[in-house]
Amino acid sequence: MTQKLIHSLFLQGLLVYPCLFWMLHVFLSHFGKMEEFYAVYVSARLVSSVQAIMASTVGYIVSSSCKHIIDDQHWLTASYTQFAVPYFIYDIYAMFMCHWHKYRVKGHEAAGTRSLRTVTRTYLHKEFLMVVHHLFMVLVCFPVSVLWRQGKGDFFLGCMLMAELSTPFVCLGKVLILYKQQHTLLHKVNGVVMLVTFFCCRILLFPYMYWVYGKYAGIPFYRVPFSIPAEYNLGSAILMAPQVYWFGLICRGAFRVFSRSRSAAKEQALRNGHRPEEAQALD
Question: What global pTM score does this model have?
Answer without folding.
Answer: 0.85
